[in-house]
Amino acid sequence: MKISHFTRISLAAILLFFIIFQSIAQEAKPVSIEIDLNKEKGQIKPIWSWFGYDEPNYTYMKDGKKLLTELSQLSKVPVFVRAHSMLVTGDGVAALKWGSTNAYTEDKDGKPIYNWTIVDKIFDTYIERGMKPIAQIGFMPEALSSHPQPYRHFWKPGDNYNDIYTGWAYPPKDYTKFAELVYQWVKHSVEKYGKKEVESWYWELWNEPNIGYWKGTTEEYIKMYDYSADAVKRALPTAKVGGPEVTGPNWDVSAKFFRAFLDHVTKGKNYVTGKIGSPIDVLTFHAKGAPKLVDGIVRMDMGTQLRDMNKGFEIVASYPTLKKLPIIIGESDPEGCAACSEDLSPQNAYRNGTMYSSYTAASFARKSDLAEARGVNLLGAVTWAFEFEDQAWFRGFRDLATNGVDKPVLNVFRMFGMMQGTRVDVKQNLAYNFLKVRDESVRGEPDINAFASKDQKEAAVMVWNYHDDNKPAPDSPVAIHVKGITAQKVLVQHYRIDQKYSNSYEVWKKMGSPKNPSAEQITILEKAGQLQLLTSPEWVNVKNGELTMEFPLPRQAVSFLKITW
């Protein structure tokens, strides 16, 4: 039968209509997420209330103090802070990838001179805000370095990253002198802050000794650990000390270093005591993702970060005597260089906007899942992001605030800070779970999921719409069903991070991206940087113990529902 031209056009139109209808119908189908408050999954661990940074001297500067105050206020539990270069020789002037305290020098006869002025200034800033230090023993003072020159570096974004590894990265020329420095630091801390306070801190040796941060051998690091741990315990027997802060446990060379360290502390001969084993109270390693540009678009790689984490947990779990020790992921981030700015490293263009916040929400939930699956004790995951003084507005560093204005990612931590009590079960009708994200990252459908908790007469649900590719996409309809509510009516507060809410970056761009915002503009930006409600708080009826809420969730957005009764 011959089909007329008109009929062909009609059939094509019908087919096109059918495709559009199917697409709309598919888009309109809500993602259903079920929260059951009666299915408890154990106590919530605030693994998110841990932060760190390279440049310790930013701590007591104007914007540093402001941000630390905000971090201390976002959590009901003490926030822990980790910073590099606490023993580096210098004048205390801050610079990128650099910091100094001048804690140790020597006179002309080689006699030690201890000066805790800057170290105390840093720790005072924490303690005044109710925060806790992760006291990093490092790096090597110039007078103790076995290879002191060159010592000070002047790195800037775009320079060779390996240029930072100068004299501070070498082993001590005298391990006994180095141990005495550690002993004096801990002793001084107890005298200044009190035994009970210092007992609540964590002491750790060095940073990433499996790469350029350590210019010695694995065995030399282990030797220095024995001397350091012994010194800490001599000054305060109840102090908590650990290591080794290796990075990339999923790399063969890193896993080898990690296992060598764990073999030594469990069954090796101690360099100081001659006995078997070393003091170890906490285990530390790092886990990082690996974003890249694909056709000009930033593509994140959460899977790489989770595989690092999973391997670290697996290694720890293989040591029966260590398996239950607390683990701190000393740096847990989407990639590895906070000071590598977006303008010179375009793969880092996720940092100013909502991609960083949605990545953070989605990844933290999976960190807890991985630890639970391996049966290890994850205590904290340090977000290696702080602030950089006197830099261009929204330059694209991995930071939580720019020039005193909070970025969207900080609001995810404000959301997490409102979660307490018990973690509860979450079910949804998409394919992603922590194993699939670990193995495949998020490359197909978006990861639309939730993390939920309950406490006395309240519940909290964090919902995200995350994808590794930073491409525009339609909003996803989400239906949240919260079961097990023991009230007829609840008060719902709906917070949101997206292009319009809790987003100082978008407001700054709408201002025309001013290089020097006016005082009035800064006030507006500061307000935009705070966590904002999507809608006014409302009382909602509960039917048969179940609350249902439906709303569109944009790509890379995060919603937070606080439910009280």
UniProtKB/TrEMBL annotation:
Domain of life according to the entry = Bacteria
One GO BP on record is: carbohydrate metabolic process
Record key words, sorted: Glycosidase, Hydrolase, Signal
The UniProt entry, under Gene3D superfamilies, shows: Glycosidases, Glycosyl hydrolase domain, family 39
Tell me which residues this entry annotates as catalytic.
E208
Residue ranges annotated as coiled coil are none
Keyword Lipid biosynthesis set for record = no
Every copy of the Glycosyl hydrolases family 39 N-terminal catalytic domain together lies at: 32-528
Q: A Gene Ontology MF term for this entry?
A: hydrolase activity, hydrolyzing O-glycosyl compounds
Task: Cite the SUPFAM superfamilies for this sequence.
Answer: (Trans)glycosidases (SSF51445), Glycosyl hydrolase domain (SSF51011)
The signal peptide annotation in the UniProt record is 1-25
Q: Does the keyword Hydrolase apply?
A: yes
What does the sequence similarity comment in the record state about its family?
Belongs to the glycosyl hydrolase 39 family.
This protein's name: Beta-xylosidase
